[in-house]
């Protein structure tokens, strides 16, 4: 049975660390490309006359489940009533 030396262990750890860093860098590049694609779609929507602020709100709301959305709507309605906005 061969024993790993300290240099071997450090080499394995360094290789693993390098692999992790490279994977993160690659994913960051992909994330940036996707963010650019999303920006382009919002630009297209704006060019077609859609309100991008409203679209962003719709996207955020669609990520929530129905009960969370209803609770948020109820709180907003309560606050608007308290401030005489309704």
TrEMBL record:
Coiled-coil regions listed in the entry: 17-44
UniProt keyword list: Coiled coil
Domain GapR-like DNA-binding: 13-84
Stored Pfam families: GapR_DNA-bd (PF10073)
Family recorded in the similarity comment: Belongs to the UPF0335 family.
NCBIfam families registered for this protein in UniProt: PRK13694.1
Name of the protein in its database record: UPF0335 protein QO014_002774
Species for this entry: Kaistia dalseonensis
């Amino acid at each position: 049975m061969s024993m790993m030396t300290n240099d071997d262990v450090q080499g394995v750890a360094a290789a693993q660390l390098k692999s992790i860093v490279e994977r993160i860098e690659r994913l960051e590049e992909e994330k940036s490309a996707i963010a650019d694609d999303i920006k382009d779609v919002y630009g297209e929507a704006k060019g077609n006359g859609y309100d991008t602020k409203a679209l962003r709100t719709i996207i955020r709301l669609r990520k929530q489940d129905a009960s969370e959305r209803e609770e948020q709507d109820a709180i907003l309605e309560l606050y608007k009533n308290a401030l005489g906005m309704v």
